[in-house]
Amino acid sequence: MGREHSRWLRPGLTAQILAALALGAAFGWGWPGAGASMQILATVFIRLVLVVIGPLIFATLVVGIAGQGDLRRLGILAVRALGLFAGMSLLALLVAFGLANLFRPGFGFGPSTAAVADLGAGPSESFWIRLFPANIADSMARGDVLQIVVFSVIFAVAVSLAGEAGRPLLDVCRSLARVMYRFTDLVMLAAPVGVFGAAASLVSSQGLRVGASFVRLIAAVYVGLAILVFVVYPLLALVFRIPLRAFCQAVKEPAAVAFATASASGALPKSMENMEAAGLPRSVVAFTLGTGLNFNPSGSTVFIGVASLFILQAFGMPLTFGDQLVLFATLFVASKGIGGVPRSSLVVIAAGLPAVGVPPEVVGAGVGLLLGIDPVLDMPRTAVNTVGNCLVTALVAGWQGSRIGGTDFGPDGISGLTPAVPE
Question: Chain centroid to CA 77: how far?
């Protein structure tokens, strides 16, 4: 009785994270010097989370794919997931361009082109080459999720084709997956501490205010994110008959972690654990959430679209409708597969603007303007990325006749095409 009473009194992980976020912000504002030193807490927490990702994705994908014994379903899963990712990105960009043209955040700003942003070097290899690992140990060490997914899928196919000879490896991966989920639970006990450190460090360096010149930009991005979360996502859930209450229960903790740490990778282990606990197949969860980090940054896509037009407006370079279509297509393609690069959203913007004739000095100066307010917009868009990836995971699972929260979902004629195989 006493244990149940204490459990009832103890706040849940989401409440602890939000409380730590508020306390960290207050600490960073009141004691900026000490707040800056709290970054070590966030760094340690993020490292503990990132070390889970490689083994967890590898184990869950191998079990999910090889454990089913039906390789045809893997191809169907990939096509459905990538199709939904593309559709989600298109919707996000449409929302972004519409709001940027409505709010016109850059008009009247008139900045100087003297400052050029230091973005760092982008990837020198083709995206398609970077998909395939040369050394899986190196991919694990760098946390390259796409390379881990590609290796794990091929490895799982090999285990499946090996028949009885591959069964011991399959059993090892089952055990590894269980252990890594427990590892995640242990790491999440430290989440409030890590979030406190991240908030204190951020506020100590950025302050609680943002320049008035960026208010419309921030408003446009926030409205775009709100449209995704409160309009687009619920409509998709209703169409596919996903129970919203059960879905929200499953995503609230991963979204809170993503928001507080501004790291979609940091929220990935908890997303995988919660979506599988909600009743979705392990193969769908591992593949869709793993690839979604790069292929479905819907929240970041809203920021990329609004911020690109903000720069063009600020430097007096408004685009014709045709030019906007070119920029739209360029940003859509550039936003895929670049999630592992530091400040990846800014790199995508820098890669997309030259397609419509923007000079390099304007690109550099424009991105430099965004660097100062990027942290203010990074946390909410990362949370939206996480929720969007979880939603696509539920949609793909619905196509396979799965259940979430004990409730069947999927539109008539879509769910139930292929019964989910029990794990």
Answer: 19
From residue 377, give the alpha-carbon distance in Å to each of 13, 260, 299, 305, 350. Answer: 23, 12, 10, 13, 17
Q: Find, among 151, 126, 127, 123, the residue nearest to 137 by Cα.
A: 151
pTM attached to this predicted model: 0.70
251 closest CA partner among 289, 215, 203: 289
Task: Name which of 258, 400, 158 is nearest 150 in CA terms.
Answer: 158
> Look-up: residue for tokens 């590609």?
150
Identify the DSSP state of 353: G
pLDDT in tens, 218-247: 899 999 999 999 999 999 999 888 888 889
From 229, 300, 297, 258, select the one nearest 49 (Cα to Cα). 258
Cα angle: 416, vertex 422, 423; to 5 degrees: 135
Token pair 């775009």 is at which residue?
224
CA–CA dist 134, 149 (Å, integer): 13
The DSSP bridge partners found for residue 408 are 403
CATH classification code of 12-408: 1.10.3860.10
Q: Which two tokens stand for residue 162?
A: 């090996």
The two structure tokens encoding residue 5: 């009473």
Q: CB of 328 within 8 A of CB of 97? A: yes
What single-letter DSSP state applies at residue 404?
E
* First-to-last C-alpha distance (Å) of the chain: 34
SS3 408: strand
Closest Cα partner for 144 from 400, 337, 296? 337
Residue 303 predicted with pLDDT over 80: yes
- Cross-strand partners of 404: 407
Domain locations along the chain: 12-408
369: number of Cβ within 10 Å: 24
Contacts of range 134-140, beta carbons closer than 8 Å, 24 or more positions apart: 139/54, 140/54, 140/55, 140/58
Q: Please report the beta strands in 147-268, taking only residues with DSSP state E, as ranges in sequence order.
A: none
Condensed to tens digits (0 to 9), the pLDDT of residues 24-52 reads 888 988 888 888 888 888 888 878 877 88
Query: Count of CB atoms within 10 A of residue 245's CB?
Result: 9
Beta-carbon contacts of residue 415 (< 8 Å; ≥ 6 apart): 240, 241, 398, 399, 400, 401, 408, 409
Return d(Cα 351, Cα 367) in angstroms, integer.
11
